[in-house]
């Protein structure tokens, strides 16, 4: 897999999303719960705006000094017995991990959930090297068995119901019990235990690395990241280069923001900070540790008007607040990063060519910006993308250009404008019912398929104004 | 141990930021510090009360005892879970808390008890995987979130709090702090003094859980299914 998922066109993806009633209901209910959780957690904590300000300041300071902190991090990891590999591209990162797997003659790799390894297609690279790769996060494990991409950053299998999950377990793993989530999870636990105990390599992502000590921190609820990093002898952690904080004091602030903004928890069940290899007198933990720091297009964002997109802490608060995501679901974005942050990041990392529609998958209501715990101005970034797409890249559809030119001409010709506003009501009469248009014609159809459109008023604004002035003047 | 491709990678970043590479950065001074205000001025006893309330939220049983009551409480908790195979962290703290004799007594009563022992190597992990309960001591306890902080080391393997079905944390009252702020600060200060952090710091908040199947909360997906905290007043 790479950042782009599937080959369907944007319009087709959207239609699939709209047609999937289970997914839409699941997304809508999850959004409600996550949003309530976030708001409640913020209220309990108090001073939420101060927390957001602090989060933003920490992230800004780190990005402005990224070269310094990555240098410090690599020095500290090396001091603690680890090896650091800086990878400019996905290919470089994958080749390095493949080389380790070859050296270790690895047959089985267990992974904990990681967006960046999805982004670079690490699973496929490891499979090419002859390794069986097991995703150990419950949601990711389900998706891996079903060969389906994730649809949400925090709950990747949100779009699947328990009957579908049971069917997958039956088909792929010989499961015989019911679709009760507790039984399904117990089965996954039993299956995954064997994988953890027999794996040669554990691969993780990295929520935040701490520059001052060389620690890689993983924030999870299930504990699979602890399994992945405690049991196999070799650990490889892959991090996007921006996932770093200067000190442990900064770490606790961003972790507090992450867990609250993601699901409304004060802290998740596990926050694990791993530094280098196990010590000589320790029994569990890796004897060999590698940190792979990935650029893969991120450096193009530094120093631009989009730099604050790199502040993202992957909490999904913007996704949970977005009315567009609510209607179309995660797969519609065609990227492993869905929702508003996905619409901002994906074109930055992978170019506009395949993702030029994404900045338009937004109502620009700014709910995402308001929800972001580190104050990324997401809707402003989306507007900037649109400007670039239209003005610099000239990627908007030809028909749109012709239409806008026509509109400009029409709107600047008083006679044409006056006549058409007068005629609009009559022309739309066949579709008008109780001052609403249902099942409208032409360009209105896309709108009225989902909701009603107000019918043009009986009297135009100019007529109303003229009438009012006449009355006032007696 | 090595660092590959660093210089070109970091030079490029500095170039993008429109300046030469930085070799020094002054510690930032942030405009707000809301984290200091959480449970500011609370006494140790008040923090224990906050912890008890949070245990309800994180599906964790809570006990509060004196040191002399610890053994009986532990026995009751273990029996309540129906556990007869136990792995425990070792080191000086099991001696000061009197647990060495208690574990000996349990062994005489046909419990299987293993204290984490580096000499036994990987066998510790295999035992932990089969054990019904893992017992650890909290190093720093965060009242706000109900979190025990474990500095894993030769006496306290990572697997003890992870592999057994039940997780029991003994919490000395003296380890109570308001929140993660104080733990982060302590580690930061130690780093500054040149005392490197443990190879694994585990912040553990109750049992393992997941909401991956139709958003139903399921406890114990990978790690422990049940958890109990025992706060010891005079430790």
UniProtKB/TrEMBL annotation, chain A:
Signal peptide: none annotated. Residues 71-294 form the LUD domain. Residues 309-376 form the 4Fe-4S ferredoxin-type domain. GO terms for biological process: lactate metabolic process. Residues 433-474 are annotated as: Disordered. The keyword Repeat applies. Residues 460-474 have a biased composition (Basic and acidic residues). Keywords: 4Fe-4S, Electron transport, Iron, Iron-sulfur, Metal-binding, Repeat, Transport. [4Fe-4S] cluster 2 binds at residues 322, 365, 368. [4Fe-4S] cluster 1 binds at residues 312, 315, 318, 372. Residues 385-469 form the Lactate utilization protein B C-terminal domain. GO terms for molecular function: 4 iron, 4 sulfur cluster binding; metal ion binding. InterPro entries: 4Fe4S_Fe-S-bd, 4Fe4S_Fe_S_CS, FTHF_cligase-like_sf, Helical_ferredxn, LUD_dom, LutB, LutB/LldF, LutB_C. Belongs to the LutB/YkgF family. PANTHER family: LACTATE UTILIZATION PROTEIN B. Is involved in L-lactate degradation and allows cells to grow with lactate as the sole carbon source. Has probably a role as an electron transporter during oxidation of L-lactate. HAMAP family: LutB. This is Lactate utilization protein B. It comes from Halobacillus mangrovi. The lineage of its organism: Bacteria, Bacillati, Bacillota, Bacilli, Bacillales.
From TrEMBL, chain B:
Residues 48-232 form the LUD domain. It comes from the Bacteria. Gene3D superfamilies: NagB/RpiA/CoA transferase-like. Transmembrane segments: none annotated. Pfam families: LUD_dom. InterPro entries: FTHF_cligase-like_sf (IPR024185), LUD_dom (IPR003741), LutC (IPR022823), NagB/RpiA_transferase-like (IPR037171). One of its GO terms (biological process) is lactate metabolic process. PANTHER family: LACTATE UTILIZATION PROTEIN C. Is involved in L-lactate degradation and allows cells to grow with lactate as the sole carbon source. Belongs to the LutC/YkgG family. This is Lactate utilization protein C. It comes from Halobacillus mangrovi. The gene is lutC.
């Amino acid at each position: 897999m790479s950042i782009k998922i599937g080959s369907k066109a944007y319009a087709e993806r959207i239609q699939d999303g709209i047609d999937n009633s289970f997914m839409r209901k699941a997304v809508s209910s999850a959004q409600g719960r996550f949003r309530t959780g976030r708001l409640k957690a913020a209220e309990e904590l108090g001073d939420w705006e101060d927390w957001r300000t602090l989060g933003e300041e920490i992230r800004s300071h780190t990005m402005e000094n990224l070269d310094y902190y990555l240098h410090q991090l690599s020095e500290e990891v090396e001091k603690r017995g680890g090896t650091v590999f800086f990878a400019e591209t996905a290919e470089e990162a994958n080749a390095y991990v493949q080389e380790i797997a070859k050296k270790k003659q690895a047959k089985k790799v267990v992974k904990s959930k990681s967006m960046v390894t999805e982004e670079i297609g690490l699973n496929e690279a490891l499979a090419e090297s002859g390794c069986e790769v097991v995703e150990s996060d419950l949601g990711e494990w389900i998706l891996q068995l079903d060969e389906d991409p994730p649809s949400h950053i925090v709950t990747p299998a949100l779009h699947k119901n328990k009957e579908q999950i049971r069917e997958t377990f039956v088909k792929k793993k010989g499961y015989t019990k019911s679709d009760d989530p507790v039984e399904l999870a117990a089965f996954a636990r039993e299956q995954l235990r064997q994988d953890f105990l027999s794996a040669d390599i554990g691969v993780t992502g990295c929520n935040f690395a701490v520059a001052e000590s060389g620690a890689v921190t993983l924030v999870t609820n299930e504990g699979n990241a602890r399994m992945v990093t405690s049991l196999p002898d070799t650990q490889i952690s892959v991090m996007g280069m921006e996932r770093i904080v200067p000190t442990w004091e900064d770490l606790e602030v961003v972790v507090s923001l992450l867990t609250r903004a993601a699901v409304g928890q004060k802290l998740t069940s596990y926050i694990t900070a791993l530094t280098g290899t196990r010590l000589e007198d320790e029994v569990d933990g890796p004897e060999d540790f590698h940190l792979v720091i990935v650029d893969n297009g991120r450096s193009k964002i530094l120093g631009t008007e989009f730099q604050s997109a790199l502040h993202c802490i992957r909490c999904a608060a913007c996704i949970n607040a977005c009315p567009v995501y609510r209607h179309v679901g995660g797969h519609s974005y065609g990227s492993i990063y869905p929702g508003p942050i996905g619409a901002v990041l994906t074109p930055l990392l992978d170019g506009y060519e395949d993702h030029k529609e994404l900045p338009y998958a937004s109502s620009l209501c700014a709910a995402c910006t308001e929800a972001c715990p580190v104050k990324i101005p997401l809707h402003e970034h989306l507007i900037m993308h649109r400007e670039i797409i239209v003005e610099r890249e000239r990627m908007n559809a030809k028909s749109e250009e012709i239409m806008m030119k026509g509109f400009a001409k029409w709107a600047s010709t008083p006679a044409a404008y006056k006549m058409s506003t007068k005629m609009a009501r009559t022309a739309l009469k066949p579709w008008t019912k109780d001052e609403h248009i249902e099942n409208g014609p032409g360009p209105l159809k896309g709108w009225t398929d989902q909701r009603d459109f107000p019918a043009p008023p009986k009297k135009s604004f100019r007529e109303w104004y003229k009438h009012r002035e006449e009355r006032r003047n007696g | 141990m090595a660092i590959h491709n660093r210089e070109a990678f970091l030079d490029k970043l500095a170039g993008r930021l429109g300046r030469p590479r930085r070799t020094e950065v002054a510690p930032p001074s942030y405009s707000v510090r809301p984290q200091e205000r959480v449970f500011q001025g609370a006494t140790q006893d008040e923090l224990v009360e906050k912890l008890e309330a949070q245990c309800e939220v994180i599906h964790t049983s809570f006990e509060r005892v004196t040191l002399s009551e610890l053994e009986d409480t532990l026995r009751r908790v273990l029996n309540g879970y129906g556990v007869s195979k136990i792995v425990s962290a070792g080191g000086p703290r099991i001696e000061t808390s009197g647990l060495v004799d208690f574990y000996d007594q349990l062994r005489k009563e046909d419990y299987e008890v293993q204290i984490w022992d580096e000499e036994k190597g990987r066998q510790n992990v295999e035992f932990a995987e089969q054990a019904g309960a893992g017992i650890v001591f909290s190093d720093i306890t965060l009242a706000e979130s109900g979190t025990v902080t474990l500095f894993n080391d030769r006496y306290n393997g990572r697997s003890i709090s992870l592999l057994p079905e039940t997780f029991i944390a003994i919490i000395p009252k003296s380890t109570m702090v308001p929140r993660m702020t104080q733990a982060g600060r302590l580690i930061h200060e130690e780093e500054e003094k040149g005392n490197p952090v443990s190879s694994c710091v585990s912040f553990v908040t109750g049992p393992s859980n997941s909401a991956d199947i139709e958003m139903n909360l399921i406890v114990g997906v990978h790690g422990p299914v049940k958890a109990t905290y025992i706060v010891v007043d005079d430790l």
